[in-house]
Amino acid sequence: MKKISTALLPLIITTTLSATQIKDIKFENLARISDRIALETLNFKVGDDLNIQKIDESINKFFQFGYFDDILVHEEQGIVTFNFKEKPSIASLNVTGYKSRDEDKKMLYTIMGINKGSIYTKQRLDNAKQALLTELEREGYLNSVVEVTIETINEYSIAVQFEVNKGDYIILQEVNYQGAQNIKRSEFEDVTANKQKDSVSWFFGRNDGKLNIEQLEYENHRIKDLYFQRGFLDANVKSPFLKVDFNSNSGKLDFFIDEGIQYTVNSIKIYLDASILDPETLYKELKLQENKVFNIERLRTDVEFIKTSIGDLGYAFADVDYDLVKNIENKTVDIAISVVPNQKVYINDVYISGNTRTLDRVIRRDVFLAPKDLYSSTDYSDSINALKRTGHFEDVTIEQIRVSEDKMDLTVKVVEAPTGMLVLGGGYGSYDGFLLNAAVNDSNIFGSGKDLQFSTEWSKKKFDLELSLFNPAIFDSKFSGLASVYSRERDYESTDIDETTKSYGTIWGLGHKLTRNLTVGSNLKLDKTKLTDNLDITKNDNYTTISLIPYMKYNSTDDYFMPRKGIEANSSLEYAGLAGDAEFLKLQNTLKYFYGMKDWLDYDVIFRNKLSLNYLNDLGKVPRNSGFSLGGIGSVRGYEDYAFYRDSTDTEGYYDMMASNNAELTFPLFPKAQMRWGVFLDYGMIGKGNVSEIKRAGTGAFLEWNSPVGPLQFVFAKPLMKEAGDKTSSFEFSLGQRF
After folding, report:
1. Is the torsion defined by CA of 96, 99, 104, 109 positive or negative?
2. Residue 455 in contact with residue 441, Cβ under 8 Å?
3. What is d(CA 629, CA 632) in angstroms, rounded to the nearest whole number?
4. What Cα–Cα distance (Å) separates residue 221 from each residue in 192, 214, 225, 235, 321?
């Protein structure tokens, strides 16, 4: 910097330095920092004697900002003037030939370390170009060319364009696993990113063979871990050898493997002070078993289980280590797991951050650890899951900050999700036709955690209005409350009759949380219904339903919109007969299961399954519209809503039994936008006195998006087991409906 300042920045002095006192300091052409900051940067001030060394030191400090190409200092009659020539800024930035979507470009600029408004330097552009080439190579484009064009807009700004000429993909025509005898190629391909091209590679589920250079350095470790999962503890996998033919853009990849021998588990010994936790209580829960093939993944699971078990007793900073003693002659391994609990840890304080809207107390009621509490691993993980289940937050983390040997602080960091929405939307369904909906709702009104909703929906088959308020914690207690009023109109079509059902009513409910995952309660429902039809069969057919609906809800999932683990179960029994006209029992059960496969697939695949079982018992009078139906997004896709439905006036009677099962695999599409795609297989049965009277199935694919206006889903379905006369549907759309 000294060399630059003396070479580029002449100091013009017009008076004798030793006799000149500084009367004023001025800055010219200074835009990027304020005059106040500039004065603080100087090593001198007004009133000081002019000193060339201090001026030189100040110039060096200005250059450290990185904003300036040149600085000229001039003194005249005690007035010192700094004249700056600032570096131009990047006013326009564009990448052509690669990544056309705005969202992708923003992410790309972040990778390149450059953006609009950045200060221009040759080094910055060189670094950005190299980062762009690295990203292209990471995606498999070898020998790409990037040209950088700079256009001067004015003295202070430039336009920069990166023109990309993408290289060709290298296709792996051959991948060899030299020395592999005990593991199949398909098993290697389950864990590696670079795979041999399959025939019909364009078809779903087939390997396209594209080279992923970024992942090459990790492949041998993945293969070695796979061998460790199969008990080959001496396995050695060298770094892969890649041979590329640039004339044909094809490649050959070789892995050189020395498998060694396969070990079985001879013994497992846990060394843990029995006065803290008896090791004998842990053995039966271990995934590894004696006389079984060793599996490193199961050992890791067992270590985490032991950490959680000892952590539930307050030992937050316990050390759990394992040692493997191999017996090559017998091909066995002895496993010694040593546990050093260290001290019990208590919660010193709990801090909440990131919540600009949600009240602290609303967050704290789902944090199961409080100041002075003994630490618990289960309480810690359950707190994160409970906060995510509220639907109020996009992300939740709880940091553990050790403040002493026996105390820690917890910092709950939340990223709030938009909970208040004004929805105006529409869609089309094969059953309902064109659909219009509007809603004003807030699931976290005024940050209180209360859920207030008003919604209306209209189509040629229905017209709904509903206003509801749900309080999940009355006065921050374990009691919840519900109040709802509604008006609903439905049109049903059958072969001989078109029927309209108009109902209005109210629901009042009270619930109590028995455990952090289990809630029980009861709702009281009052409903007035009027039925009319085109044949005047139901003219003036009005009835009142007053029913009591006890329910039970269990939820151990880890997220509201997109669970990756846990169970959600709901069971309710509606009894009508306390008063009014209707008399019946209606049992409805739903069980959902979620399982994320990322840990063992290294890809965010989610399996989810929903089982529904419903039963209706006539105790004297069943309202005409109370029977079950089959078909549509809620049961069997590929068939219209109410494709299989009968009311109580039908000769054969309403359907009083229904069962359905929905199995799905979902895959990430645009993760940052919370958009996924998936495939499904549905199966359902319905009948009168015999649940298997009608059996239908459906399969297909879907797109789902957790949009700002609520969950959106587009379903493309194909009916299975269909029969003549069935009302089928190949496309369905839903808004606001979760799995």
Report:
1. negative
2. yes
3. 9
4. 10, 14, 6, 11, 21
The pLDDT value given to residue 6: 36
For residues 120 and 88, the answer to whether their CB atoms sit within 8 Å is yes
- Domains, the chain, with CATH or none: 2-86 (3.10.20.310), 89-165 (3.10.20.310), 170-258 (3.10.20.310), 264-339 (3.10.20.310), 346-416 (3.10.20.310), 422-735 (2.40.160.50)
- Specify the 3-state DSSP secondary structure of 144: coil
As given in the structure block, the two tokens for residue 116 are 């609009």
**pLDDT surpasses 80 at 489:** yes
Q: Counting Cβ atoms within 10 Å, is residue 284 exposed (0-12), middle (13-18) or buried (19+)? A: exposed
Q: Which of 80, 94, 91 is nearest to 42 (CA)?
A: 80
User: pLDDT tens digit string along 611-668?
Assistant: 999 999 999 888 877 889 999 888 999 998 888 988 666 667 789 999 999 999 999 8
Residue carrying structure tokens 């309209």: 500
Amino acid at 610: K
Helix (H, G, I), strand (E, B) or coil at 557: coil
Structure confidence at residue 16 (pLDDT)? 42
- Name the DSSP class of 8: H
Tell me the C-alpha distance between 233 and 265, whole Å. 12
pTM, full prediction: 0.62
- Please give the pLDDT value at position 649: 62
Q: What is the bridge-based pairing of β-strands 24-28 and 79-86?
A: parallel
The answer to whether 164 and 98 have CB atoms below 8 angstroms apart is yes
The alpha carbon of 545 is separated from its chain's Cα centroid by a whole number of angstroms, namely 42
Q: How many Å apart are CA 361 and CA 475, to the nearest integer?
A: 11
For residue 198, the 8-state DSSP code is P
Structure-token pair, residue 638 = 């590929």
* Largest Cα span, the chain: 116
Neighbouring C-beta atoms of residue 583, cutoff 10 Å: 18
In whole angstroms, what is the distance from residue 418 CA to residue 447 CA?
A: 11
**If you write DSSP's letter for every residue of 78-141 in order, what string do you get?**
TEEEEEEEEPPEEEEEEEESS--SHHHHHHHHHHHT--TTPBP-HHHHHHHHHHHHHHHHHTTE
What's the angle, vertex CA 672, arms to CA 668 and CA 677, rounded to 5? 25
SS3 550: strand
Lowest mean pLDDT among 166-170, 256-260, 337-341, 405-409: 166-170
Residue 4: the pLDDT is 35
Asked if residues 201 and 169 have their Cβ atoms less than 8 Å apart, the reply is: no
Buried b / exposed e over 691-729, threshold 16 CB at 10 Å, is: beebbbbbbbebebbbeebbbbbebebebbebeeebbbb
Backbone φ and ψ of 246, nearest 5°: -75, -15
Is residue 406 classed as helix, strand or coil in its secondary structure? coil
Tokens of 254: 């070789």
